[in-house]
Structure prediction request, 618 residues.
Amino acid sequence: MKILGFILQKEFRQVSRDKTILIMMFLMPTIQLIVFPIAMNFDVKSVNISIIDHDNSTYSQKLISKIGSSGFFKIISMETSYPNALQKIEQDKADIVMEIPSGFERNLVREGMQKIGISVDAINGAKASIGGSYLTAVLKDFNANLEINTENPAKQQGMIDVTFRNWYNIRAEYKYNIVPAILVILLTMIGGFLAALNIVKEKEMGTIEQINVTPIKKWEFILGKLIPFWIIGMIIFTIGLFVCWIVYGIISQGSIPLLYLFASVYLIALLGFGLLISTYCDSQVQAMFVAFFFMMIFMLMGGLFTSVESMPSWARGISNMLPVTHFIKVVRMIMLKGSNFGDVQTEFLYLIVFGIILNGWAIWNYRKTS
Amino acid sequence: MDEEKVITCKALSKKFGDFYAVNEITFDVNKGEIFGFLGANGAGKTTAMRMLCGLSFPSSGEATVAGFDVYKQQESIKKNIGYMSQKFSLYENLNILENIEFFGGVYGVERKEIKERSALLIQSLGLEKEAKKMVGELPLGWKQKLAFSVAIFHRPKIVFLDEPTGGVDPVTRRQFWDMIYEAAATGITIFVTTHYMDEAEYCNRISIMVDGKVEALDSPANLKSQFSVHSMDDVFYQLARGASRSAD
Prediction:
């Protein structure tokens, strides 16, 4: 234990002299939390639409004004022919083209039905599908309010009125989803990168050899590396929570100590992962490269920005093997839903197991004698 | 002889693939002696030394250091030795006192003891003004002297020095050897590798490695008469000339 004290003293001295790390400790959480949630806005607010009205009737005018006033669409142009409108899409000015055929009003009144052509620019998948469904919703609403339909309720077959209510994120705002994700990324970066690079740096400098020839025990050395970064990680997490509160007004609905409990276990698991990388790599470049590879997997498959549930089952399998998947789930549940320990105990077990495996593996693979 | 042996080595080998870096070396080192371990670059000196320090597992053969087995009792060996590697390996972003404190501490020296001994050490090295300076800022000669002092700070039985004077000016080299003699006088056994043949003359006994094998082992005077030459340079030259591993 006495020896651990000397190791910690040395690690803290070194970290406190590394100005880059100190600056990053404060800069990273503030910048990431302030810039990313605003920049990465997936909410579809203004879909540009180009309309071709071949009918020029009262009904078609009504439909167009309904679309215009729905708040989701910006009518950028009225075209006379489909090829002209398509050009707007090609020029990237319009996202959707709607073509109202001639005889629109006549067919609606006489035959009670009429088809409308909608073309969507699907390059931006999210915008296209959301825009398309907004438009369908507007058309459905228009349809329901048609005089012919309101006069003959019998004609409204199978009309089920669906209303939505967004739980836990009442205004369905993207920031509630993304802010916890960025908090998680912060901890992941600290654990993954800083720890991985630290031991490898000792290898590069040759100081690890001097350590290996001393009677330091393996667990003392690993723990000596783990504790300082654990503390840095928790400080960053705390700063992150304050930024969430001050900038976004997001206050955890659930218990803060519970959140910290999970953050601390997650951080231990991730630090173990970083240390594991460093025991396999010989240079900082290698370690950086490997850490980055896994970081990409964590970000894209851990359910930070996408939904794990909608992945194919094999991908869900991979996702479940990532500590970050379980941690982000818990952070969202605690912060937004106010879940208690009972709701997230499976995730807790997962993180404990990850922590034991990764750290155990790192200690096992760190050899004082080759 | 009834001299106490602190290192014994019997047919110790290290194989990398089918290449014998160290090929069945056999020698003993007596307590308190300065043992020079010579050889051209690539002869296998560092590999042999790493095995004795418990940094690397031997492939075959036997060896004990300070009475402990190099296969099973490496951690006990590590408590009893000091090591100064070829590459400077104190922490450059810690100052002199902090480096001494750290390495003293991990060898189990008490804090109070560390304080007293490091004050004396700084004084004898004449580094009072530099005590709070980052080690990275020191000139090479001072770094090497400091590294040696740190290696013997915990008063080990044996200290292993891997080319300690590489790249150091002649005056500093001379001072360095004075320090080695002082340490040897306190009973510490010195195991030192070097390329400088004048340094070989300072050793009580030397061994010369060629292509992974110990080709000569005796006191410098005996070796010179054995090869009927006047200097260690010539002894080394005669032996190393036949080497198949090119010196780089």
Summary: Chain A has two domains: 2-40+173-365, 47-155. Residues 174-205 of chain A form the longest helix (32 residues).
